[in-house]
Amino acid sequence: MSEQHSIYGELKWREMIYDSMDGLEELLEKEKVTLYNGFDPTADSLHVGHLVPMLALARFQRYGHHVIALAGEGTGMIGDPSGRSDERNLLSAEEAHYNVEKIKRQLAKFLDFEIKSNPARIMNNGDWLLDLKLIDFLRDTGKYFTVNSMMAKDSVKSRLSRESGLSFTEFSYSLLQAYDFYHLFVTENCVLQTGGSDQWGNITAGCELIRRKTGKNAYGLTYPLVKKKDGTKFGKTAGGAVWLDPERTSPYKFYQFWLNTDDADVIPFLKYFTFFDRQKIDELEFATRENPEGRAAQKALAVEMTKMMHGETALDKAMQASEALFGGEINGLSAADIKEIFADVPSGVIAADSMNGEGLPIVNLLSDCGFMKSKGEVKRAIAEGGVYINNHRVTDVNTSIRKDQFIEGKYLVLRRGKKNYFLLKTEQE
Predict the structure, then answer these.
(1) Helices in 172-250 by DSSP H: which ranges?
(2) What is the pLDDT of residue 101?
């Protein structure tokens, strides 16, 4: 538990409050409330951008509040226009349901569903939205919304100014999200909805619907949308989004994403994404300021996030893979690991059958594959102690390379000096 008296104070010092409704801070200081955050299943995995609201729910739970992670099977079939410049692809019922099931398992990494005293809950808005009748919904819910107020939302205005416009389907999204809040308010006594700052309009619509239908107050709180200091979108790399599913983004690349955090971003990220207390973050901030080359904060962030998301074993493998680029041990890494780690280094191909029997002399191999220009250059490099095979130094110029030295029969990692890598592939790869 943090030294902060309330969850509101905790979020405040972590700079995670973008906007909140009047009275919420006082409410959270005096009682434990039920709250929810929605996650629409637009893909079969969440990405690192979802971690802020996910971890915030976990923080609320640790402070004794009752949390609901709402999987949006119903709203996911419509598509939220917030933060979008174009129409989302509509999901089929089967796709939405499949994505929800996958996302549930990711949410379980952060929320405690087993604790008897105050378990987190996952609910699915498809359980009530998919059974709604259109006429009943328009009469009982739609009448509380004016087109004027809906048109005033930033997400709507930005889309209306574009040639593609905004479909009625997406225009109606905020009504469905408002209905979710109303439904949870009535059935679960849920008084607070949280989300990213782009959700403020949808959240306030729900609060207004609750007030007009019940005469009671409900509350909203939003978190900042995380961006890097240079203004680029958080969680994006050259390869696209950084996903939580290890099949989409490997633990190694997940680890590397956090390890490569800029000095200007790393302390805010430690506040947003870890459960480190103020003292530990202050210590890491001091270490970063005094010795930025040591990258202590980045290493702590990468270790914590990878362990939290993928577990100790995957973390150990990711750290080993990272060390491989700096001469670390390669034994134990798979061919898939090697392919990913050395994806950006120069490469060459060799026929697998050319290494049958006693193998191929290293002098011939390194010159023929294109790693070095001549046999003479190979001999000089070996004599100087600067040639490595799978990160093990070659000391004998008469060494031969056998097929069984290739990792899973596919890859051989060549290195000259500290950083000059070359990936040799067999034709079967």
Answers:
(1) 173-188, 200-214
(2) 86
